[in-house]
Structure formats: C-alpha cells, structure tokens
Specification:
The protein has helices at 55-63, 67-81, 91-97, 108-119, 127-144, and strands at residues 5-8, 19-24, 27-32, 38-42, 49-50, 85-86. It is an alpha+beta fold. It has two domains: 5-42; 44-152, no CATH class. A hairpin with a 5-residue loop joins strand 3 and strand 4 (38-42). The structure holds zinc ion.
C-alpha cells in the first residue's frame, strides 16, 4: 500500500516504519508498505455549526481598525480549520460587496475573494433559488387551500 504518513511498525509483519495512513474518507485506511495488512479507523461524526457572516463583519475585519473584528476573524478561521464551523459564501455577499466603498486600496472584488476564501468552498443556495422555492411553495399552498390567512 502507498502509505502517506508513517505511524510506526506494522502490527502484522513487524516491518519497521512501514505502517501508516493510506487514505482518508469517511474513515482512515491504514496499511503496511510490505505486507497486505490493512485496518480501517472510523472517524467521529462531523458536527459543524453554520454561521452567516454578514457584510458588517467582513467590512470590519477588512478595515482592521477594530481589534475585536480581527480577533473574531482569527477565531472563526481557527474553528473552521478544526472542522467545527463553516461560514458559507452567499450570493448576497456578492451583492452587498458591490456597495462597499473599499479600504486602503482594497477593492470590492478583493473583498469577495476574501469572503470566498473564508468560506473554504462552502456556499449557501443562491438567493434567487431560495426565493424561487419559497414562491413555489406558497403557490402550491395557495392552490391546495392550505395557505394561512393573514389578518392585518
Ligand atoms: Zn506489514
């Protein structure tokens, strides 16, 4: 097996520094370079929390004037790195970034790139897809007579 990280001696054949991690997916596959021994180590279930970081937060973090934003940004970055939190990118971020005036030569596009980097590839559904689903659910409820009456 192609061992990517050596953990020690093989528990089966005893070869020195031949046993270690082979691949990582839902579990870690471990194996030996010398023999066919392999073992699967199941990983704990991931329990990530989701957070929507709004334009106020990103603008504050980008400006760097308030140390609280920098501290919060560092904490978010660390917790995301530990796979405990995800701060997905939203199409709303892009709309809001267009209204940002920039700071110290930082442009709107750079702000969007910063937000995408913080999201690490995670993305909420596009705002128009959410609106589309909401309108169709409301229309179906209306057609089925299950829509609630709103009394003003
Ligand atoms: Zn072995």
């Amino acid at each position: 097996m192609f061992v990517t990280r050596v953990l020690g001696d093989c528990p089966s054949c005893g070869a020195n520094d031949a046993y270690g991690n082979v691949s990582v997916g839902a579990y870690v596959l471990r194996g030996c370079k010398r023999c066919d021994y392999e073992a699967s180590v199941w990983l704990p279930e991931i329990r990530k929390k989701f957070i929507y970081l709004d334009q106020f937060f990103f603008s504050g973090a980008m400006r760097g004037k308030d140390p609280r934003f920098q501290a919060a940004a560092e904490r978010v970055k660390r917790v995301c790195h530990l796979q405990l939190l995800v701060a997905p990118y939203s199409s709303v971020h892009e709309d809001e970034a267009q209204q940002w005036r920039g700071h110290l030569g930082m442009t709107n596009d750079q702000l969007v790139e910063f937000i995408k980097a913080a999201a690490r590839g995670a993305e909420f559904e596009k705002d128009y897809a959410v609106e589309h689903a909401q309108v169709f659910k409301a229309w179906d409820a209306f057609l089925n007579g299950s829509a609630r009456q709103v009394h003003i």
